[in-house]
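#structure-requests
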Amino acid sequence: MQVLVLGAGVVGVTSAWYLAKAGHKVTIIDRQVDVALETSYANAGQISPGYSAPWAGPGIPLKAIKWLMQDLAPFMISGRDVDTQTLAWMTKMLSNCTESAYHTNKARMVRLAEYSRDCFIDLRNELNIDYDQRTKGTLQVFRTDKQMQDAQKDISVLEESGVDFQSLDRDGCIEYEPALANVKEKIVGGLRLPGDETGDCFKFTNALADECKKMGVEFIMKTDILNINTEGDQVVSVSTSRGTMTADSYLVALGSYSTPVLSKIGLKVPVYPIKGYSLTLPIIDESKAPTSTVMDETYKVAVTRFDDRIRVGGTAEIASYNKELEEKRKANVEFVVNDLFPGGGCTENAEFWTGLRPMTPDGTPILGETQFENLFLNTGHGTLGWTMSLGSGKYVSDIISNTAPDIDKEGLSLARYA
């Protein structure tokens, strides 16, 4: 079978890998000059199945209002970029801020993310690729006793899902992240997820793309996707800046840009671009740097260790498709790395970056079938595209191949929004 994959980020490339392994002839098209140059380029670097949770949850509306008033706000709204699509998405998200919805959505996300983590293990056993990977877990640090108490609802879902975790006091946090001893008065405890991993998504995607090419996957870059052409319940072709392309099956893995492309054929996909920022800084003192990923619960910022660099990712900005890199947005992520790991990295020599996270209102990505028999989706992963990439790619490849997937399909397709 010929499969045309739209999108060459980590989600598109992992999908192509599994499709090629299943014996299909695969072509990837993307507007960029190379793979992983959009959201996959400089994300937070964490592969965190245990930390998979929807943003929509009980108490979030009130918290969001408080965040907007903080000097170092983890959440912001750009008033000039708010439109009807933004308001509609926010309304759907608010409808998911209930206890029952949070429980359902988190369980779906953990199911997929845990499966994806297992796929990472299998891939490393199969391929010798380097992406600054570490398997030392994620540590979510709490600055207040209230945060420790609030973590109980997440712990209950972790227990139900069989996810390994450790609830730690201050000394326990320092045992796993020794550099926190320098600022121990700033934290009260933490939640450690030992099954989580870290790595450079950009390096990984490029390495896997090279493996895909060895298997015959064709990459057609610098190609704009103009339209998906349909007849009845079938996609018949895709119009591009290089002409019309045809295949037997089509997979949309365009992240935030899935929404406008699919809207042209009547598919309403509630995937909205949430703008995020990151810093990548060289390590200048390993004894003061993290050993894995540390998530600051107060500021919603992740600090992740690569081999000789630190990646700091955070801030959620509602700004539609605005990708302007505003210097003032650096303050939140820069503060956290200097506050928790002072002297570990050189922020003066940091690369500042922004990208659009493709977020669904319930947090779970949209995978698999659509109303068109040969059109499939792999999009809407939010902040967890790196975490869920391999699992999503394998799952969608199985669906396209008409093979029973390894995990329960419940709640993963576009049908849940019907």
